[in-house]
């Protein structure tokens, strides 16, 4: 979220640029940072220690070195988070807090793609909490026109500049709050997108929509007056049922993980929708996408089969675990569950399209160092525990192992007893 994060900590948002105002205007500084010779310097010194730079020079190219240090940090962050931005010459990065709060390229691109499944047409969209505008940029690839809404003028100008470098030509920029924009616009949109701030005035994390800013539960009527579809980003820690209860007309929930790390939970609301929402558990890999979709009533009706561990073990990806599809995974992939509270599954046949990790059991071993040593001659192992008396780190130390190697030691509880097994990861 961008604009509402300003309401309780405005000084954080532009502290770096504001501190330079006595030397040059923000527009002049932006122009200077985008100059070819400065961009060339930033590319060539990307891995320099920015603290040493600040200590050594007060300014370079007529620019305070603190501003250059901010750009170096931004480039390093963008390399993995925003590769399209990183690869584009002339991008100017915002203060670290804004870059940290922005969506990753993978998640922003996912939002732009997935929304096209549901919308009858993608002509107009408004990103009401735009910040550095990563979501706005990727929405601009799916929609004919996007309104970027952000009350912080300095951040808006940085974003406009970066969008121009990325050759986005169908974005309009509105220096106003989300509520102000909804009150003043006469337009109707195909989609409104919000990423509410998840910190209160004391800077403590909050998770309920009604505790975030803006409070989307209070804005629902205003939002549906301007669009039939609303997409709302929530904390990965949100309780899904709580989210459904707080919002109106939830049609779909997307739990998005990137490389098995849960990054976002998205609620898609549609005016007049009254059915049960479909939950989409998505995990984006480098060249692959795992997606498991279901309704909560399906999970409640599912009946899992149980057994002791067989040849293969299956661990669902993080999004599925967050979604709570514990029994349905067993049914849909014809796997046996090990224990009601152990979210590992097993079979004698390899299921190659399983959405998560797959291990092949080599041996069941006693959890004593002497027995373990025979399988981990180098003393290295990847240790995993699930519903087991010891945490993975504790088990590793007890077995006198260190991280690494090609093999796994997995501790878990099945219905009849606790197990430690040696396994190879197949997927």
How would you briefly describe this protein structure?
The protein has 427 residues and is an alpha/beta fold.
Task: Note down, in words, how this protein is organized.
The chain is built from 19 helices and 19 strands. Strand 1 (59-60) and strand 2 (63-64) form a beta hairpin. A nine-stranded mixed sheet has the order 5-4-3-6-7-9-8-10-11, sandwiched between helices. With 427 residues, it is of the alpha/beta class. Helix 5 (50-56) runs antiparallel to helix 6 and helix 9 (105-118) runs parallel beside helix 10. The longest helix has 17 residues, at 65-81. The chain has helices spanning 6-13, 15-18, 26-33, 36-44, 50-56, 65-81, 83-86, 96-101, 105-118, 134-142, 153-165, 178-184, 216-224, 240-246, 296-301, 318-323, 326-332, 369-373, 392-398; strands at residues 59-60, 63-64, 124-127, 145-149, 171-174, 189-194, 227-234, 250-258, 261-270, 278-284, 289-295, 305-306, 312-316, 336-339, 342-347, 356-365, 380-386, 402-413, 418-425. The protein folds into three domains: 9-100, no CATH class; 102-296, Vaccinia Virus protein VP39 (Rossmann fold, 3-Layer(aba) Sandwich), CATH 3.40.50.150; 300-425, VC0802-like. It is globular and about 70 Å long.
